[in-house]
Amino acid sequence: MTSVSLNNINHQIMNLSQAVGQLLFGLELVFFVFLGFSALYIFVFAFIGLFYREKKMSRPGAGNKIAVLIPGYKEDSVIIEVAKDALRQNYPTNRFDVIVIADSFQPKTLKKLAKLPIKLMEVSFETSTKAKSINTTLAKLPEHYYDIVVVLDSDNIMKSNFLKKVDQAYTNGYRAIQGHRAAKNKNTTFALLDAANEEINNHIFRKGHWAAGLSSALIGSAMAFDYSMFKRMMRTIGDVAGEDKELEVRLLKEKIKIIYLDSAYVLDEKVQHAEVFANQRKRWIATQIHYVRQYFFKGISEMLKGNFDYFNKAIQAIVMPRILLLGVLTLVIALLLFIPNYIPDALWAGLLLCTCLALLMGLPKKFYNKKMLNAALSIPKSFFFMIVALTKIKGAHKKFIHTPHTVSGSESED
Predict the structure, then answer these.
(1) What gap in Å lies between CA 58 and CA 168, rounded to an integer?
(2) Cα(310)–Cα(38) distance, rounded to whole angstroms?
(3) What distance in Å separates the CA atoms of residue 130 and residue 101, rounded to the nearest whole number?
(4) How is the beta sheet containing 176-183 ordered, strand by strand?
(5) Which residue intervals of 203-242 are DSSP H helices?
(6) Among 72, 179, 186, 384, which residue carries the largest CB count within 10 Å?
(7) CA angle 193, 290, 33 (to 5 degrees)
(8) Phi, psi of 88 (to 5 degrees)
């Protein structure tokens, strides 16, 4: 072989090597930017959340008429105690109605509910969703009989002053209110991790957003709205999972501010087992991906119109779930010990540090104990179940995925 031919081959190999190198650099850069955005987003809002102060109301509550909606699907084990507890509010009894929406309940449960001083709405669908249950019930309720509607989950327990706080916020002009949903139980490792995750969510996406002058994110329950507005908006929401996200988008589109009331507590049952955790996260991730496709570019359009709340919601949808982010960054840094990389290791380590600091800032002091440290050892297991959930998300946002509940009271709260 001539020297000219060898030079040509060497030149082609060098060109190929450069092309592969540029491709790998490009892929690493895209991955770094995506993970970096997620890490910095939660870090910034976790830091801002440290400066959250609950809005002081200038006017006292006016005793507005409130409808408390409690939709449930096959929740026979908890609904009786939940309904009884909902009646124990420190609020005039003639100014609120507890409305249990019973989907696929057992006859004996329905008989017990019928004896309580509540309104019982029985519904039945071929394919059940929370939106269907709520819309069917709203269609049967009087048009202007109520001022406020409160939405709970079928396992939720309101603290006794919840309706009073909602009434005061509404009297002071807020038409969309998100309360502080907290753990009812911390009786298993996964329940404790889920409880911690709930509080971190509250800190970043509710405290952090409100302190930054943005709307709080909705969470699906412990929510309150102007009754007529809620009824109008719910009519346009399809029969898919994630109705709270659809509602949030509509509120932000109309530039209606969502206030966060940190002192208005509703206790919520946390998942106790890995299988339920994976099932629940499958629905959440599928819903998140759906909203990225649906609203990301609309968010950019709204930003150009000055609607930063809507834009923030759109870009929030591309933030990677925190357990996934923590696990992926850890894996990437471990891999970089064995393979060549183009972005300095220190920058990758910085993203992991930002993520860890965001989680620590968002975690309330009461969680800093030995139990939480032991529960943290299960985070790799949680990461594994999140990966499993990712493989099963196709079409999950269109399905109703039932999360079973068993803790009826608040005795396990501590």
Answers:
(1) 9
(2) 18
(3) 10
(4) 119-123, 96-103, 66-73, 148-151, 223-226, 176-183, 258-268, 157-158
(5) 209-211, 227-234
(6) 179
(7) 70
(8) -90, 30
Beta strands 258-268 and 176-183 are parallel
- CB-based contacts of 105, cutoff 8 Å, min separation 6: 72, 74, 75, 76, 79, 113, 122
Torsion angle in degrees (nearest 10) through CA of 325, 245, 76, 82: 100
pLDDT (tens digit, 0 to 9) for every residue of the chain, 414 residues total? 565 566 666 666 666 666 665 776 678 888 899 999 999 999 999 999 999 999 999 999 999 999 999 999 988 989 999 999 999 999 999 999 999 999 999 999 999 999 999 999 999 888 888 889 999 999 999 888 999 999 999 999 999 999 999 999 999 999 999 999 999 988 888 889 889 999 999 999 999 999 999 999 999 999 999 999 999 999 888 666 678 888 999 999 999 999 999 999 999 988 766 666 666 666 667 777 777 777 777 888 888 888 999 999 988 888 988 888 999 999 998 988 887 778 888 999 999 999 999 999 999 999 999 999 998 888 888 788 777 766 766 654 455 555 555 655 554 444
Q: At what angle do helices 227-234 and 243-253 cross, to 10 degrees?
A: 110
Q: Where are the beta strands (DSSP E) in 145-227?
A: 148-151, 157-158, 176-183, 223-226
- Give every CB contact of residue 241 below 8 A, 6+ residues apart in sequence: 129, 130, 283, 286, 287, 396, 397, 398, 399, 400, 401
- Report how far residue 7's alpha carbon sits from residue 181's, in angstroms, rounded to the nearest whole number: 69
Identity (one letter) of the amino acid at 320? M
Sole residue written with tokens 């696929």 = 104
